[in-house]
Amino acid sequence: MVCTMSLLRSLLRATRTARRSPQESAGPTADGAVLLDAPDERLSPALVAAAAGTYEPAAELLAATRDGAEWENRDRYLGRLVTFARSRDGWLTAWLAAAPHDPDALLVKAELAVRRAWESPVRAEQLREVMPLITAAAQSDPRDPVPWRLALDHARGTRATHTAFEALWEQAVRRSSHHYGCHVAALRYLSAAWYGSHRECFDFAERAAEDSLPGSLVRALPLRAAYSLLVEGSGGRTTPVQEERVDAAADLAAALSASFAPGDPWPAEVRNLLAYVLVARGRWDAALEQFRRIGPHATSFPWASVSEDPLGRFLEAREEARSRTPGTGPLPGRARRGRPRGHYA
C-alpha cells in the first residue's frame, strides 16, 4: 500500500486555520424507555410529514440549518432524512418536482444517490455516475461544507488519488474547519481498511482533536480511530502502544461527554460509541457511567456493526456493564425476555 504520510500531513495542515458545565450522572433508564435513533423535536415533525408524503417541514428544517450555518445539525438531519427516503421517497420526488433547484432538495437527492451507489455490486462505477449530483449540491450554496463531505465519501469509494482527496479536503475545511462529518470522512479514507493504516488513522485523529474547539465533536475523533482498530483490528491482537492510544481516546471522549448534560441527545452517538469501546476494553465502571449519561438515546452506530438487533445489543452491553460493576442494583423495569422495543422513524 502506498504510504499516505504526505497526505496525512496535508490534511492536518489544512485544518490548522483559524459548554456546558459537567453535571452529575442521571440514573439508569428502564429498558422500555430506551429508544433507538429517536429524532429530536426539530426533526420529528419533518419525518412525520415525510411519512405522509409531505416535504415542506423537511424543506423548512434544512433551510433553517443552511440559513443559520448550522452545518453539524444540517449533516445530522440530512442523514436521518435520507435514511427515511431510502424506503419511502415519494416526498422527495414531490419536493424536487416543485423546486428542482432548491439547494436542500439537491443535497438530499445527492446523499440518497451516493448511499444507493455504495450498495451496488459495481460501486465505483455507480458512484462516478452520481458525481454531477454532488457538484450540483455544492454549487447551489458555496458556503455549505456538507456536499464536500459527500464528495469525500465519494472519493473513497471511487479510489481517488491522494492528491484528488486532498483537494476535496481543502475545499471542505475552507468552509468549516472543524466539521465533524468531514473529519470522519477523512478518517475513513486514512483507515487501514482503505488507504492508510491504524497508525495514520490515530495520528490524524489525535492531531485534529488537539486542534479542535472546546465542546467540538472532533474531540471524539480518536475514539473513531479506536473503534476502527477494535473492529478491523489485527486478528484480534493489539500492541501495548495501540491499547494505550485506545484508552487515551476513550478518556478524551469521556471528558467531552462530561461537558454535556446527561440525557442530552446531541452527543448521544459519541456516548454510544464510547460505551462500546469501554465495554470492549473491559472498563466496566466507566462504561456504566456512559450508559447512564446516554439515558434513553441509543443509536444504531456502533451497535448495528455487531448485531442485526442494535437496540438489543445496546441493552445487553448495558446490562453486562451493570452486572460487572460492584454495588449496582438491577435496572428499573428490566425486561425479562423477548426482543426489546425500538423506535424507528
* Overall SS class: mainly alpha
Distance between the termini: 41 Å
Q: What is the global morphology?
A: globular
- Output the radius of gyration: 20 Å
Give me the strand/helix succession.
HEHHHHHHHHHHHHHHEHH
Count helical runs.
17
Low-confidence stretches: 17-25, 333-345
What summary fits the major beta sheet?
2 strands, parallel
Query: How many DSSP E strands?
Result: 2
How does CATH name the architecture of the domain at 53-176?
Answer: Alpha Horseshoe
> According to CATH, what is the class of the domain at 53-176?
Mainly Alpha
Strand content: under 5%
The CATH topology of the domain at 53-176 turns out to be Serine Threonine Protein Phosphatase 5, Tetratricopeptide repeat
Q: Can you give a write-up of this model?
A:
The protein is mainly alpha-helical and 345 residues long. The chain has a domain of 124 residues: Serine Threonine Protein Phosphatase 5, Tetratricopeptide repeat. 62% of the residues lie in helices and 1% in strands. It is built from 17 helices and 2 strands. A two-stranded parallel ribbon has the order 1-2. Helix 2 runs antiparallel to helix 3 and helix 2 packs parallel to helix 4. It is globular, with a radius of gyration of 20 Å. The C terminus is likely disordered.
